[in-house]
Write a structure and sequence with these properties.
single chain, 292 residues, mainly beta, six-stranded antiparallel β-sheet, 2 helices, 19 strands, 6% helix, 49% strand, elongated
Length: 292
C-alpha cells in the first residue's frame, strides 16, 4: 500500500496537477491565493471548486484602511446559485504591499475558507468532496496582482472497487457460490477496548473469492465514521489463506485507504457460520454472520 504523498504545487503547475489528481481522493489540502489590494476601488475575487461551490470576497481598497478602526471585507459563500453564508471580516492590511488571502483548508473531518491579510479574520465552514479531490481555481476578473498561488495536497491511495455495476449484481453473483466463505456477511457483535479502537461502523461486507485463493472484502453498507468516503463496492480489505485451515491473514483499510494496524488475522467457523476479524494490537474482535 502506497503512503499518502504530500506535494506543494505552485502557479502554472496547478492545472497539470489538478488533472493528475482528479481521480484520487484528498486527505488534506491547503489552497492559498493572495491578491494585492487595489488602492481606492473595491474589487471582487473568488475561490471555486466542485463545479458549484464558491467563496467570494470584496477586496476594499487599501486607501480605506483606517489606522484606528481598520476596515471590513464583505464575503459570501455560494452552494450552486444559493447563498449559504455571508458576513464581513474585520481586518487591517498588514505588510507591504497591502494584500488579502483566500485559503481553503481541507482536513479529515471538514473544510473551511479563511479570509485575512496576515491572519485569518474570518473562517467560513464549507463543503468539499474529498473523493473527487478537486483543486480549487480562482476568479480575478479585475486583474489584481496575484502574490501567491499555491496548493499543498496530500493525495490518498487510489481506492479499489469490486468489478460490478451495482450491489445487486454482486449479490446475485455470490448467491450461487459453493465456497463457504464467499458471500455476504453482516455485523454481529464485537469485543474491544474503546481506549485503543472505535470501529468505524456496523458493516455489511461481501467476501469475493479471487483467482489466487484470497478473498476481497467489499464494503456494502454500515459505515458510521467518515461515511462520505465509503461508497458501496469499495474494497475494505482482504483475507489471505494461511497454512491453517479456515485461518487467514487480514488486511483491513480505513476510510482513507490506509492499512489499520498490523498482525491482523481472521478465522471462519463453519459450524457457527461466523467470520471473526481480529486486531490484536487494538484489542479488538469483530464478528460477522453470513446472510443466506
Amino acid at each position: 500500500m502506497k503512503s499518502p504523498v504530500k506535494i506543494l504545487i505552485a502557479c502554472a503547475a496547478l492545472a497539470a496537477a489538478a488533472a493528475a489528481t482528479a481521480s484520487q481522493p484528498v486527505g488534506e489540502l491547503v489552497r492559498h491565493v493572495r491578491f494585492e489590494a487595489p488602492r481606492t476601488s473595491t474589487r471582487t475575487v473568488a475561490l471555486r471548486w466542485d463545479d458549484s461551490l464558491r467563496v467570494e470576497a470584496d477586496i476594499v481598497g487599501c486607501g480605506a484602511d483606517d489606522p484606528l478602526t481598520g476596515l471590513e471585507i464583505p464575503y459570501r459563500y455560494y452552494v450552486g446559485d444559493s447563498l449559504a453564508a455571508e458576513g464581513r471580516a474585520p481586518l487591517r492590511y498588514e505588510g507591504s504591499p497591502a494584500a488579502l488571502s483566500l485559503v481553503l483548508r481541507v482536513w479529515r473531518d471538514g473544510a473551511a475558507v479563511d479570509i485575512g491579510s496576515r491572519h485569518a479574520a474570518a473562517t467560513i465552514p464549507v463543503d468539499y468532496d474529498r473523493l473527487a479531490g478537486d483543486i480549487p481555481d480562482y476568479d480575478n476578473p479585475h486583474g489584481l496582482r496575484v502574490l501567491r498561488n499555491t496548493a499543498s495536497v496530500e493525495a490518498l491511495p487510489a481506492l479499489r472497487t469490486a468489478p460490478y455495476v451495482c450491489v445487486d449484481s454482486l449479490i446475485d453473483a455470490v448467491k450461487s457460490s459453493s465456497d463457504p466463505v464467499e458471500g455476504v456477511w453482516t455485523y454481529l457483535d464485537r469485543e474491544n477496548e474503546r481506549a485503543t479502537a472505535v470501529p468505524g461502523g456496523f458493516y455489511t461486507l461481501a467476501a469475493l473469492l479471487e483467482a489466487d485463493g484470497s478473498y476481497s472484502l467489499v464494503y456494502l453498507d454500515g459505515a458510521r465514521h467518515q461515511s462520505v468516503l465509503w461508497a458501496p463496492l469499495r474494497v475494505k480489505g482482504r483475507l489471505r489463506p494461511t497454512r491453517f485451515a479456515d485461518h487467514y491473514d487480514l488486511e483491513w483499510l480505513d476510510a482513507e485507504g490506509r492499512p489499520v494496524a498490523s498482525e491482523n488475522h481472521a478465522s471462519y467457523d463453519a459450524e457457527a457460520g461466523i467470520l471473526a476479524l481480529r486486531f490484536p494490537l487494538l484489542n479488538t474482535v469483530m464478528r460477522f454472520s453470513k446472510v443466506d
